[in-house]
């Protein structure tokens, strides 16, 4: 066999058992001679699928982060409501200037006026408020006792009501339905609104420890 024929045979044998295609210097070619790989349409579809999956993942992470923050906000609102409720409850039931327990000579009308006194609410300094009804209708941002805003709690707001309504009852005790008879029960309600516009409400009762006799 000549040297030229040997080379031809080697070239022929190089394609044995390659029914699906052949390898060239630029890559694998199919039997029809076209370059195989990912088409543009397939690439776009893959990118769309990956984008959808990424959006779903990020949304899930964002929701989880929000759920982690929510209990902290709720806990802060509960603490604020508790602090304000304690503050109001610690105030005297009667105005100190007209306390029937200290001055039995006071008329019932004077005692009624004493209970509903709000003569100090003109002052932002709550340390000067000397009876619990001063807080009736209070609605403000979170401030300290002397009336200074607390910047770190700027997203919260508090509203307070103090009810001494006739007929208000607590167990076997109740205010008289006669408005001229001094109340002996007060219902304090504190509502804190947070930055999400969600509300937290705490309530408590306060009694006068004085029998009006009517």
UniProtKB/TrEMBL annotation:
Keywords in UniProt for this one? Membrane, Transmembrane, Transmembrane helix
Report TM segments: 43-63
Extract the Pfam families matched here: N_methyl
Which InterPro entries does its entry note? N_methyl_site
Q: Could you identify this protein by its name? A: MSHA pilin protein MshD
Q: Which organism is it from?
A: Reinekea forsetii
Q: Which gene encodes it?
A: mshD
């Amino acid at each position: 066999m000549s040297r030229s024929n040997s080379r031809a045979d080697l070239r022929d044998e190089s394609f044995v058992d390659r029914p699906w295609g052949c390898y060239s210097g630029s890559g694998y070619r199919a039997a029809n001679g076209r370059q195989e790989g990912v088409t543009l349409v397939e690439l776009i579809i893959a990118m769309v699928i990956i984008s959808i999956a990424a959006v779903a993942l990020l949304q899930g992470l964002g929701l989880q982060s929000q759920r982690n923050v929510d209990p902290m906000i709720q806990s802060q609102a509960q603490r604020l409501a508790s602090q304000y409720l304690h503050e109001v409850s610690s105030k005297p039931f009667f105005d100190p200037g007209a306390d029937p327990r200290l001055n039995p000579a006071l008329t019932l009308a004077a005692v009624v006026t004493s209970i509903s006194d709000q003569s100090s609410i003109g002052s932002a300094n709550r340390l000067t408020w000397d009876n619990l009804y001063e807080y009736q209708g209070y609605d403000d941002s979170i401030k300290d006792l002397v009336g200074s805003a607390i910047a770190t709690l700027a997203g919260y707001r508090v509203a307070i009501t103090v009810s001494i309504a006739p007929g208000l009852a607590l167990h076997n005790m109740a205010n008289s339905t006669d408005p001229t008879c001094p109340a002996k029960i007060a219902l304090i309600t504190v509502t804190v609104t947070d930055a999400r516009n969600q509300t937290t409400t705490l309530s408590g009762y306060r009694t006068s420890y004085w029998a009006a006799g009517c």
